Amino acid sequence: MTIVSNHVPIQSSNISFQLNRKIGGFLGFKMTPFFSTLHFDSNEFFAGELINVRILMDNSRCKKDVKNVKLRLNQYVRLRAEQRTRDSNRELSFLRIPVNCKKGGFLEQNF
């Protein structure tokens, strides 16, 4: 059996995601909005490579302090051979990082 790996070059660029969540409250009641933006320095990463993440947190309309940021890294792979395709999605890493974003405040942090 021969395995051939063709790396298709992708124009690597900065990529950002905006997340809007409701946090706090009890059983879904009295939750308040929390907004964040995640910036990555690339849209493509390889094994062993360091991933830099900048997180901008907007807690201005929230009534709760944000004490932790949870980052989860997933690997998505699509394999194609002849007429078959197989997709794989698995969690590679999970981090819980302590932060100190007070209610009504803003925070920018690099990881």
Could you characterize the architecture of this molecule?
With 111 residues, the protein is mainly β. It has one domain. It is 0% helix and 57% strand. It has strands spanning 15-23, 32-40, 53-58, 66-81, 84-101, 106-110.
How would you summarize this macromolecular structure in one to three sentences?
The protein is built from no helices and six strands. The chain is mainly β and 111 residues long. The protein is elongated and about 55 Å long.
Features:
four-stranded antiparallel β-sheet, 6 strands, 111 residues, two-stranded antiparallel ribbon, mainly beta
- Major β-sheet strand ordering: 1-2-3-6
Judging from the principal axes of the Cα atoms, what is the shape?
elongated
Helical fraction equals under 10%
Over all CA atoms, what is the radius of gyration? 19 Å
Treating each run of at least 4 consecutive H or I residues as one helix, how many helices?
0
- The residue-averaged pLDDT reads 82
